Amino acid sequence: MSDPSPEDASVQDEGSEAGQVVAPSEPPPGVGRKLLRGVLVFVGLSALGFWVLGKLLPGFWAAQTIAWEWPSFLGAAALILPLWLLDALRYRVLARGFDLQLGIGRCLQLGFLFHMAAYLTPGSAGGQPLVAWYLARRGVPLPEAIGIALLKPLLGMFVITGLGGVALLLHPNPPPGLERFLVLGAILMLVAAALVGVLLFQPKRVAAGCAWVFGHAAQLPGLGRLERAQGALTRSAEVAERIRARGLPFLLANLALTVVWYAVGLLALGLIARSVGIERGLLPLGCDLGLFRALAIYAPTPGGAGLAEGGIAWLFGPERALALALGWRLLFHYAEIVAGLAVLGHTLRSPRAPEDAAHAQE
Questions:
Q1: Cα–Cα–Cα angle for 223, 146, 350, nearest 5°?
Q2: Using CA atoms, how far apart are residues 119 and 106, in angstroms rounded to an integer?
Q3: Tens digit of pLDDT for each residue in 252-281?
Q4: Dihedral of CA 263/67/309/88: which sign?
Q5: Were 11 and a residue from 24, 97, 161, 275 both cysteine, which residue would form a disulfide, CB within 3.0 to 4.6 Å?
Q6: Above 90 in pLDDT, residue 331?
Q7: Higher-scoring residue by pLDDT: 196, 316
């Protein structure tokens, strides 16, 4: 039988028990074409960003310097595997809060799928549905799958926004006009904290409010399927209650792992910057890297394509923008896109595990 669609992971099959939510049985049509289109858009927008820079900055292409310092670049490449393992550990620790035992290999696959989908969809919107679909495909009950898929990026958004704010405050010479992002960053961090807090401490009210909205929206033409998500909302509220029962240490452990993951990523990015000849003091470079990661994460384009390239030229200078962007994309994006596509292809060819199978996985 064909595989379920990540977009339709909350559909209730006919003949199932009342209120039981299971993953649908059919994959989305044309998934291969959609993925190919996403890759082309991602790469194309990156190229478009440099084309725009060439038009806006006279002599941009003539000024490009690509001279790799290979020890630093190889040092950055050596950090990518630990970075992937840390991301997998984040999923594993988070799953423990849902009383799930996920092996490190399974969590690695989750990380590849999330980042691949995030890089290929606007605003990184595709990562969470694909993670929820994959977990449901591997036997995780749908509400727990949705909880893991949503909570991890929310914690990440909170951490990177805070790191960006700290970088802006500590920067000895911030770029002109960047001060306005301090206010924006503070607002985004408060929003992320509020979302996490509301989901954890008022889950039943969130479920009731969403059910009310979905129930009314289902009466509109073309939105009748939303009503079938209410069973998942009810069970998701129960899952959130269990997460809250874990207490503050559980949240702090996940936040600490997120901070370490971003720190290792910044170290790898710093080594890439050094490998292309960007020489700055530790504090200015660290602040620029933190600002760049915070700005790139909120770019509305797939994987920040186009806008991130402009941010590199703005923060690090146009002369080495092409080399830095190529190194960053190669190690941080292209490798995970290839790995994510491989995991997705394998998953689509594999049979679906029965629900609750993940409670016994190791």
A1: 100
A2: 20
A3: 899 999 999 999 999 999 999 999 988 888
A4: negative
A5: 24
A6: yes
A7: 316
Eight-state DSSP code of residue 98:
T
pLDDT digits (tens, 9 = 90+) for 180-217: 665 666 676 677 667 666 666 666 676 666 666 656 55
**Count of Cβ atoms closer than 10 Å to residue 24 Cβ:** 20
Give the integer Cα–Cα distance in Å for 268 and 270. 5
Contact 92, 358 (CB under 8 A): no
Both tokens of 42, joined, read: 């991602």
Q: DSSP labels for 216-274?
A: HHTTSTT-GGGGGGHHHHHHHHHHHHHHHHH-HHHHHHHHHHHHHHHHHHHHHHHHHHH
- Other beta carbons within 10 angstroms of residue 33's beta carbon come to 9
Q: Find, among 358, 348, 355, 361, the residue nearest to 113 by Cα.
A: 348
Provide the residue count of the chain: 362
